[in-house]
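Bumping with the actual sequence this time:
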Amino acid sequence: MEAIDHLDLVVSDLERGLAFYRGLLGPLGYVSESEIEGERGERVVYLGRHGGSGALSLRAAQAHEAPYDRYAIGIHHVCFAASIRARVDATAAWMREIGERLGGKIESGPQEYEYTPGYYALFIHDPDGIKLEILHRPTERDLAARLSELEQRLAGLEP
């Protein structure tokens, strides 16, 4: 199986959702935008990655409103990859400055988590409470460079 091509999210307020996700995902390369008409005639907006590999779409809810519960059947959270750690930090800064005013919330991070070596993530919630993660997972080359840097620092501390 290849990578997921696109993921559709239903939000309570399409314009608020678009403002939030444009700001959140633009720096991660989701810079193209297109629209279609959904199967019920609704407006569906796709935020796509540069080069066309992967997209997130948003559409307004048409069913009854209920609080989102990530432990109910459905999606627990969605994780977006960041190519460098600084992008995770920049996303946290955007959340504090703009994302929270749009109704988003930081759950935890950015910080390293013990899942795998170098797992550096920010966990947030969108305005509807959907949990999102922005993750930088280093390559082996990144880890080797970090190990070399730490060895040099340790050598400088030894008498």
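The tokens above came from a reply further down the thread. The longest helix spans residues 140-157.
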